Fold each of these.
Amino acid sequence: MTNVDITSVAKTYGQVPVLADITTHFAEGSFTSLLGPSGSGKTTLLRIVAGFITPDSGKVAIGGADVTETPVYARNIGMVFQSYALFPHMTVAQNVAFGLARRGIRGAEAKKLVDRALDMVRLPGFGDRRPKQLSGGQQQRVALARAVVIQPSVLLLDEPLSALDRRLRQEMQVELKRIQRETGLTTIFVTHDQEEALALSDNVAILDRGRIVQIGPPAEVYEQPKTRFAAEFLGDTNFFKGAVSNGALQLSDGTSLRTAAALPGNAKAMVAVRPEKMQIVGDGTEVEGASNRISARIDHVIYAGPALTYVLTAKDGTSLKIFAQNRTGTIHPEGSEVTLAWHPANTIPMEDAA
Amino acid sequence: MPADAIIRPAASPSGAAAGHRLPSWFATAALLMPTYGWLLIAVFLPLCTMLVFSFMNATPMGRAPIVFTLKHYKAFITQPYLVGIAWDSLVIGFWTTFLCAVLGFFAALALARATIGRARETLLILILLPFWTNGLVRVFSWTMVLREGGFLDTLWHALLPEAGSIGFLYTRPAIVLGLVHGYLPYMILTCYIALVTIDDAIIEAAQSLGARWWTILTRVLVPLALPGLTTGAILTFVPVIGSFMEPRILGGRVGVTMGTVIEDQFTQAFNWPLGAALSFTMLAVILAIFATFSGVLRRNAGGVA
């Protein structure tokens, strides 16, 4: 139960920089997701914390102690792998007891801890089975018990739920969160599943080409994305480009969009609006606070029962997407001209300008 | 049954086709025929012939009437020196298998874990290379190395000019050396196949739980490679017990093994029944050894497939 500090860590394979100057802090007891597309360096960062990869430069500290040069076996980490990585020739109990034996804990004491760990992952009485006799979800629970039973300084999860089917994955997300809370372990979780990252984490770090582009609580990262990449990678987003005049964004067709946060000083700027924040309003209808209005034409309607997705084209040619709850049962027909309205607070300026 | 699945879809849609439908055992039998037919002709028949020979009084050539007897199976009692030779053969077999297992396992480990792509292919070819040369040439080249004043001595004297010879041709270690050289590739390949299937994450998991290389080797790698080691041991031990070329060429006077004795019965003494009886006796001994070991291995390895 300790914090993890990464200071100026960089890693290059041949000519390809995989991680570029990463500095970040994982607070004690926190659950942080590293989220990014493949090749963004999220797994490399996790493996550097674990010790499987030595960074070219920079420092890794676990609980205040510099472990950059410490080999994996001496780091006291708990790791869970995508492929479960259970020892196939050992029983479930032997798997869980493996790390305890390396710490000199054997016999009755080890048995007590193993039983407790198996209770925690809700597999009591499974100790004598072989990994092959268990389902994927059960195997991953054993792997989790094996990683947690040694009371590691930090719990590292490398896409642990990716190999499971959708229903099992949702079930395991709940379990994972519960176990993390119960143990209070500082947890770093690598995933490419954004919903999983948002649902589980205290903090989400979005990685792009070897850099952390944004890190913060899920709601902050989702509601206030800083860059186009962060906005696009996490959820769907509509972008408007235009010129800054009088503190507002002037689109090419003359429409003016207001933002709650100050626009950058540049002449050109880009703002992001989440599709569910915009709503279709009747002409002349005022929606309180929704002072940003544009008109657009509906190209497609995707009907999914409780929710509707409209694909539209704005006057200035920007293609848009909006999500609407099917509250009244009325569906705006394709081809119709509508007005969209939303709050300036949901109009987020992007730091990387158009 | 797969054979069923192949035939049914074609046969069931129309009633008329039902008359042409072959019984399901036919497809199974047809698929197995080539393999089992070949085994029958190439392995089982010659073995049966030898078994019949082993009960004959003398080699069935010429006009002498064929008389059946059990006397050749008493050879180990009537000629007690054969027991000593059999023991020597087993000792050579154990040493060769043991050295092959140790060297082969680590070579396979290096091949499977430390190399990638082209380097791995090159190493594999280098390992298989001895297979492509004639066995006799391989064994004779060892005599050039091991004899007094041979290649080994030349190297030795270059370091220590005053020292005596360290050539050990015509000794039991020379026989074992030649046999290890000949049979090592089997062990490397069987261990390699077992080791290459081990997921990297399993090794990493062991490391993350605090295991050092020694623990990983003894608790993870060796147990998981056990099927390969066992197969390799069988592939080495059986032919080594029956080998006669290496003992004869590298062993000289000490190179009397069951292999050479049996070969002598067939080529020199022209006593095929005795040779056959000795072969079957050794086969029984080897099977007894495997039966003993397989029990031990099963208990230690648990449920490893």
Note: The helical segments of chain A are 42-50, 92-102, 107-120, 136-148, 166-183, 194-200, 218-223, 228-233.
Amino acid sequence: MSHVASAHGAVEPAESPLTPESWGKLGMWIFLAGDAVGFGTLLAGYGAMRATSADWPSPFAVLGINLTAAMTFLLICSSVTMVKALEWLGKGDKERAKAFLFFTALGGAIFVSLQAYEWSHLIHRGLLISGNPWGAALFGASFFIVTGFHGLHVTGGVIYLLAILRAVANRPEPAASYNAVEIAGLYWHFVDLVWIMVFTFMYLL
Amino acid sequence: MATAEHKHPNYMAIFWFLAILTVVEIAVIYMPLAKFTIGVLLCALALGKATMVAMYFMHLRFEARTLGMIAVVPLLIATLLIFVLLPDGFAVMKRTVGVKPAATEPAKH
């Protein structure tokens, strides 16, 4: 056990049963909790604006869900490739771990591209921050702010994943980057989790 | 305390579960149900999916309690926020319910 632990440069020993095994992981969770409050505020604000509006358009009818359902599926797939990367790294297969990390980043990049396509399509049809042909002007503003905030998270995640991919490639010992990949995975799954919420509250409801 | 010894759940099973729940979500909006029922069902399905992601993909199930407590805090804050904002929605609903008949009646003449 001790020789395995010493191979983990980035993992500090636990100090108490309540202390997580890695400070980096604790840090990421605290960051994600703050970020979740940010998204929670945005979604709650969206709900309040919608509930207090007399002419809120039907998101389902205006936005369409075919493309976004595919994007949701894509993000779930990229979460799976992320956990697979971690699993292979745990088994010591650096090459497979690198490939799966790359697929995860690729999934994120495709997601952002599809979102850009969706946005340009909606803007073309008249959905603007300043107003839209279907009803309340805040509909467009809130849509772009919430999906844009999430899209920025995905963009940041792709950059983060590529940086981690480089770190994995540079470290000769696969176990040395396990902790970093797991922490990056937390961020990535969180972005997936938020999209599940955004998809439900902004497209389906 | 080697992280490499982390248990790995059956990720593909979780994936299929999430994919099926997404299909159910989309099916729900086409079902001939009351709007309120659809809303409750969608919220429950979304929360279920989010819980799966947090528990298995983010390994919350296998972690120290501290991390779980950190994860629950934003959920509590978001729930509180909904209750803070609810009265506003009810107030507007009352107003529009009172206004609407008056606004539609003259159109009948």
Note: Chain A has one domain: 21-204.
